[in-house]
Design a protein that fits this description.
157 residues, alpha/beta, Alpha/beta knot, 5 strands, 22% strand, globular
Length: 157
């Protein structure tokens, strides 16, 4: 199973880049993992929030493969603790999913078409975080889930 992290927006800021790269490399011991940063449309500043989400949806949906298992990160999604995420990932591996895509949408979220395409909508927290921090938290939590599934000492309960 391959893990891809997709985020709409700018490159990783230096203050989180090292951590994201570190955890992504660690995830690589369990599953191939990589980041894809999807650029916002060039005229984003002139678009309404609704139109921007529609344009971003076109980019996202054209990049997704039919067989990709899409996990949308959204504060209204289902809350999972670390053990729950570990179990969820193990279930996907047991079901022989080829590729899991974790998607962090744009500044205004995602369009309804992307919401409908998602196989699962996950909330890291009911709090709203800056996208840069979500990237770091996401990478760390996926790594933590991998270590839980292998009974390694990283996660302490």
């Amino acid at each position: 199973m391959k893990i891809q992290f997709w985020s709409v927006g700018k490159a990783h800021e230096p203050y989180v880049k090292e951590g994201i790269e570190n955890f992504t490399k660690r995830i690589g011991h369990y599953f191939p993992a990589e980041w894809h940063l999807l650029s916002t449309p060039k005229n984003a500043a002139t678009l309404s929030a609704t139109d921007l989400k529609i344009k971003e949806a076109e980019i996202i949906l054209s990049a997704l493969k039919k067989e990709d298992y899409l996990i949308l990160l959204d504060e209204r999604g289902k809350l999972l603790n670390s053990e729950g995420l570990a179990s969820f990932l193990q279930q996907r591996a047991n079901e022989s999913e080829k590729c899991i895509v974790f998607l962090i949408g744009g500044a205004f979220g995602v369009s309804d078409t992307v919401m409908r395409r998602a196989n699962f909508t996950w909330s890291l927290s009911p709090l709203v975080f800056p996208h840069q921090l979500v990237r770091l938290i996401l990478a760390e939590q996926v790594y933590r889930a991998c270590t839980i599934n292998r009974n390694e000492k990283y996660h302490h309960t």
